[in-house]
Design a protein that fits this description.
This protein has 151 residues and is mainly alpha-helical. The protein has 2 domains: 98 residues, no CATH class; 33 residues. It is built from 7 helices and no strands.
Length: 151
């Protein structure tokens, strides 16, 4: 297990291209990476979030947290999280952690089936609403006679 985290790296050529294209495009590239990490977090994005939490919670500068062993940061993060949890939620997590890989895979497949059936149901509702809207034709089209008035 590594003792230091690697700083996120921009994809090859992004920095060079950003500098060549326009000023501040490097910043834009970093913003795009940050947004991607927020919308669909990968492992480095989650760890950066944990480091920010650790830094705030334990009053440690972020650059120092990034130098700590990953094991220590994660251990303190989860211990603090579990200490501040309701007993019921903690019991639920204990059950999740005790599951074997086949049990986790079966649950994941079950959730996926539920998601697909929910999506199918929503699609059917949308089709029904579209059919209703299409079936409803305006009863009478109002016309406006703009001819001048004879006095």
């Amino acid at each position: 297990m590594a003792t230091k985290t690697e700083k996120p790296k921009l994809p090859e050529g992004v920095r060079e291209q950003a500098v060549a294209d326009e000023p501040f495009s490097f910043i834009r590239a970093v913003q795009q990476i940050a947004m991607a990490g927020h919308l669909k977090p990968d492992v480095p994005a989650v760890y950066r979030k944990i480091c920010r939490y650790y830094s705030k919670e334990f009053n440690t500068p972020l650059h120092e947290v990034e130098q700590l062993p990953i094991y220590d940061v994660l251990l303190h993060f989860y211990e603090d999280r579990y200490e501040n949890m309701e007993a019921q939620e903690r019991d639920d997590i204990k059950k999740q952690l005790a599951r074997t890989k086949p049990e986790r895979d079966a649950l994941e497949a079950e959730k996926e089936d539920e998601t697909q059936s929910d999506e199918e149901w929503i699609r059917q509702l949308e089709e029904q609403e579209a059919a209703k809207a299409k079936a409803k034709e305006p009863e009478e089209k109002m016309t406006f006679n703009a001819s001048p008035i004879d006095w």
